[in-house]
# Entry
Amino acid sequence: MDHYGEAMTAASATQTYQISGMDCAACARTVEVGVAQLPGVESCALTFHTAKLTVTGPVAPEAVAKRVVALGYGIEDARSRPAAPVTTPSFWRFLWGRWETRLALFGTLLILPGLVLNELLGREYALVNLCSALALLAAGGPVVRSAWRALRVNRAITINLLMTIASVGALAIGAFTEAGMVMVLFALGEALEGYTSTKSRDAIRGLAELAPSTALRLTREGDDWRESEVPVEALRVGDLILVKPGARIPMDGRVARGQSSVNQAAITGESRLIEKGPDAELFAGSINGEGSLEVAVTRLATDNTLSRMIALVEEAQERRAPTQRFVDAFASKYTPAVLALAALVAVVPPLAFGQPFFDAAEPTRGWLYRALALLVVACPCALVISVPVSVISALSNAARRGILIKGGAFLEELARVRAIAFDKTGTLTAGEPTVVGLRAVDCADPLGDSRDTCAPCTEMLALAHAVERRSEHPLARAIVAAGREHGLDRRYPAADGVTAQVGRGVSGVVAGRTVALGSHTAFEQLVPHPADHCQPRSLLAQSASVRCFMK
# Structure
């Protein structure tokens, strides 16, 4: 653990670690309590959803690491942790990837003979009982070890201790199959909770994949510029990078040279393409259009828009909802209470009412058996994990769709919402451009929206369809879809000599005529026209982002 040996330079320094090996919120509580007891720790918080441990105070990093390892979990410095690709395995591959869950699978195989012969057929065999006992040892080994560590280090009664007592007690009264089955089912349940939490964490980490991990850096060598592919972490503010057509933009920056249209819906939620020229701002994770751009980096990889978005989501997860706070507080008192209640169930009836404590001929009549059953049934693990997993799943799914919710408390408030006001154009859209209106110069309709009856409008759409039908530009796909919708896709063949002009539009030859489609800026520069041609006749015309004209 040499990398934990750095000196503490501040009286109340904050350290951040990534914890591994946790399957449920109770595991996080065990680590949090254990680290909080170290001398010098002023505050300690472990968020189960992100597996991130934050420690404040003049405590040596190696002491924190030693305590976490003593509790049976892994620890890494969050700052030095490499960004691994997000590849959530299948459930069975997840089970096979950890030795604890491999033992649980092995225990599942060992318990099957007892389940079939003892429970279903009612037959007792010594070899079958031995298999059940081995199943208990295989699946229960990690559980017992965890319970002992929490009891020894934290002086805490945990869910694992409840299951250990219940299983050992069942074994002591001769209920071999029940003892093995309880532990196997508990171990598999813990593994399922761990898998669910891993998927939730990977959903957040998957946001990072919106931006490439490498970039093409431009460096001057004499009179030439040389391209070199480098990790985004190696870029510094002011570096010049090249973004090719169709590529994702790897860093926040400003356009130094070039012009293109950019799809930044993943960052800003805007469904339309945004024209970018010199000095325009770009966001990491957005998608470049048809033109090459030379971009001057304005923020480091750890401080770009996408990184801050991920940090906001993780911060939101740390703000616990009222229900989650209640469940956490309830579980911390519930577990010792259940253990005490089970002890009373086992002792009070035999002592006060002369009831049998243990009946060898019929174990289910004894109150010891009933106390052990209470321990198994009352295990609060499902309760403890239910609210956190629901909250993290909702926050993660919202984040993937571009919605940032500040925390579980605000998420719960949505249940009380009866009306929502949206103040941004494009918020309630499908995120794809579409043709919403047509207005030809010769259109007789003063509003210019009667595309089904206006002959000049349909002719204009048919010509535009012929030019755009072989383009992959998002606006081109919208025009092609509109032409197909109105049955104009067969009026003209695909245009010849189609040429794209970056940031301006596209042109081609249709039936011997040159047809150009372009932005309003191109329309202003290339085609002399009266001023009233640009006056919007309706809301539909105002919302259009393309003007079509013929030469």
About this structure: The radius of gyration is 33 Å. Residues 2-77 form a domain with the Alpha-Beta Plaits fold (CATH 3.30.70.100). The first strand starts at residue 14 and ends at 20.
